[in-house]
Every structure is written in C-alpha cells, then in structure tokens.
Amino acid sequence: MASTQTKFIQLKTAIPGPKAQELLARKESHVPRGPFNTVPTFVEKAEGALLTDVDGNTFIDFGGAIGTINAGHCPPAVVEALKEQLDQYIHTCFHVMMYEPYVQLAETLNRITPGTHPKKTFFLNSGAEAVENAVKIARKYTGRKAIISFERGFHGRTLLAMSLTSKVRPYKYQFGPFAPDVYKMSYPYYYRAGGMTPEECDEQVLRRFEDFFLGEVAADDVAAVIMEPVQGEGGFVIPSKRFVQGVKAICEKYGILFIADEVQTGFGRTGKMFAMEHFGVDPDLIVMSKSLGAGLPISAVTGRAEIMEAPNPGEIGGTYGGSPLGCVAALKVIEMMEQDGFMDRANRIGERILQKFEEFRERFVQVGDARGIGAMCAIEIVKDKTTKEPDKELTAKIAQTCCQRGLVVLSAGLYSNVIRILSPLVITDEQLEEGLRVMENVLEELCTPAQA
C-alpha cells in the first residue's frame, strides 16, 4: 500500500468547492457544452508543476495543459520577458510593421530544428494552423494535392487538420464533409500487433505503402506525408527508428515531402529538443506549437529554405501569427531549455515514471502496457491482459479519481484507454513521487491485483 501522506497536494474542500460550483453554474449558463474540461474546478494560481484553484485546493499537474507547459507554469524568466515586452508594444501585426523578435525566433528555430540544411521559418497561432500551412506549402512546392496521415494520428480541429486526424469521436463526428485528397496509412502499434515482432510489424506496414500507391492514390499525386514521431492523442504510441526511417525513404523515393508534427513532442518532452532526433531523420517541414511559448499562443512551420520559399508574398500568414508576446516567450523558453539541463531532466523524470509504470503493469491485471520515451509516458488500461480489450470506463474512473485526490492526469488513445503523463519538466522529485503515490493508491483501489 502506497503512502497517502501529501505535502504539495492540499485539499481544503471537495472538488469542486463552493466557489468553483458558483463558477460552474455561470459556465453552464454562458458557455456551450462542447469545450471539454478534465478537472471540475477553476484555477486561481499556477506555478511550476502546481495548480491552486479558487477554493484554495492545490493540485500536482501531470497534464501540463496537454503538453503546453514543459517549461512549467509561469516560469519567472518568461514572465519577466513578457513584462518587458508589454512596456514596448503589444501587437503591430508582422504584416504591417515588422519586429525583431519574430526574426530572432526564426533564426533560433532554423538553428535548433533537425538538419543542417538551410531553413526558413514563419509563425502562426496554433498547432492546427501550423499543420494547415505546412500542407499549403507542401502542395505549392510539389504541385501535388494528396496528403497522407496515419491511423490514430491527431493534427488539430480545423477542417483540414480534422480531416488528417484519425479518431471519429469526439473530434470528427457529424462535422463532415471533410477535406478531399486526404488518406490514412497504418502506423505500428507493437502492443496490439497480434503477436508479430516489431520488425515484422514495421515490415508489414511499410510494405503496404506500395499497395497503397496502387490501390488508393498514385505516389506522384502525393505532396506530403505528415507524421507525429510519437503519437500523442493516439495513446503515446512509439514507433521504431526503423519504421520512421522507412517512411522517410519511401518519401524520398517518390519525391514526397516528410512533415513532422512535433506539436506535442517538441521542446524537451521526449528527452531531446525534438522527438525526430531519436530516429535520425531530418524532416522537410516541421510544425511546432504547445510548449514553444510556455502557454502563449504561438506556432511555427520550419522547413527547407527552397520549400518554404514556394508561396508568394501574401499567400501565407495571419493577423496574430508570431505575436511579439509569443515570440519573446518562445525565445526565453528555448534559452532556458538550452542552458538549464531540461533534456537531462526530462530523461530522469521519464526513467522514474516508466519504472513505476512497469511496476503497475506487473501488479495490476488491468494495466496492460507501460511505455514511454523521455518524459512522455503512459499506461494502457485493459479488461484482460490476454485479450487486451480496452477498458475506457475504468480509464475515465482512474483519471477522475486522481483529480479528486489532487492529481491532474489526462487520458488518450483511439480507445480512450490510456493514461498519459505530460508533467512540466520543472517538477521536483518530491512532487513527482507524491503524484505517483496518488496514482498508485488509485490503482490499488480500482484495479485487481495480479496473481503472484
């Protein structure tokens, strides 16, 4: 039995408390039900890896605003940079009067993204916008129309990004028709590979590409393949280096551009600045957002210079794209990550979480798999280890109970049966251990012990 003693989690009321209940009533009256909420309360203060709500309850954050807060909540250096920027100017629109932080951030991303080839970068507001513009650029450069994404992939909620996404509920149901010339390919899922070895699974999926080009869309009609190097919303599904390199080789064979969607995996989450570094592949285009700006809305498309030059002036951009506040926040985040040992910290966090998750897999019947890369770790919840039947209901109950105990965790996966960890990389060892104890206590209550 794990200890129930808490130091950082402080629960003064039930969740939601009285003030949160008042705000919930106002929300119900004025906000539509569509925007989902994981924790039924409202934040008042956030710092590092801790969240305090309006009733004074303090939570440990293992969700990180869905991977947006790798640098932590309100990092002082970012806050100070934003204050300085606010005293100068808030927004002029880069398309009207330019500003240096935009150019400085472009220079920085051109330097740190994978590959030594010449690159160029421009900015938008969200991951979905970055995805859509990467597709526009790929189509413009190649003169082709078709785009291939992968089963279980998630690329956003706008029309084209939603079309690229591979989960019907809640992302696509009754929101069609979808964008044309979008196709889905298989992506290896070794835990559910039906007894195949990872090598056999990779070989089968890669071989399907050739048939795909015969049966679905001609290779010379395909502008780009877009891939998450580790699937995020799809359940933290991690491919092999062999598979990612195999996809890149197919792209090179047929003149197809390779777009890496690093929106959730970027900026230290996997123990490297970008997850593609694990696989030895330099993408033609890379899209970024989330933890780039420490919570400020900003996204980026970086790519080979000749590809990025394909659109004519005025054909890409946006009123708020690369806002001054977003740019100065991003510059400070990258400075912190390069100077403060964030990558080593992510790997240490991940090692500890995965060690604990593997214990859970051995101890509990319903923990079917434990997997991770850097600080991007997950457990998969099943009804039975043999059949591997997903248990969506138990997963939701685990997540909800953790939240009631002061630990914010998120679910994911095509079957909604994965508990994922996206804690800020500034989380302390004590906070991490306390959060893992809460999760262990919840699993002990809700899961069946494995037979010795």
Automatic annotation (TrEMBL):
- Please report a single Pfam family linked to this protein: Aminotran_3
Question: In what pathway does it function?
Answer: Amino-acid degradation; 4-aminobutanoate degradation
* Molecular-function annotations in GO: (S)-3-amino-2-methylpropionate transaminase activity; 4-aminobutyrate:2-oxoglutarate transaminase activity; identical protein binding; pyridoxal phosphate binding
* Listed InterPro entries: 4NH2But_aminotransferase_bac, Aminotrans_3, Aminotrans_3_PPA_site, Class-III_PLP-dep_AT, PyrdxlP-dep_Trfase, PyrdxlP-dep_Trfase_major, PyrdxlP-dep_Trfase_small
Protein keywords: Aminotransferase, Pyridoxal phosphate, Transferase
Signal sequence, renumbered to the chain = none
- For the protein in the UniProt heading, the enzyme class is transferase
What is the top-level taxon of the source organism?
A: Bacteria
Co-factor requirement: pyridoxal 5'-phosphate
Its GO biological process terms?
gamma-aminobutyric acid metabolic process
Q: What is its EC number?
A: 2.6.1.19, 2.6.1.22
According to its UniProt record, which reaction does this protein catalyse? 4-aminobutanoate + 2-oxoglutarate = succinate semialdehyde + L-glutamate; (S)-3-amino-2-methylpropanoate + 2-oxoglutarate = 2-methyl-3-oxopropanoate + L-glutamate
Q: Which PANTHER family match?
A: AMINOTRANSFERASE CLASS III, LEUCINE_METHIONINE RACEMASE
As for family, the record states: Belongs to the class-III pyridoxal-phosphate-dependent aminotransferase family.
> What is the name listed in the Swiss-Prot or TrEMBL entry for this protein?
(S)-3-amino-2-methylpropionate transaminase
Source organism of the structure: Brevibacillus composti
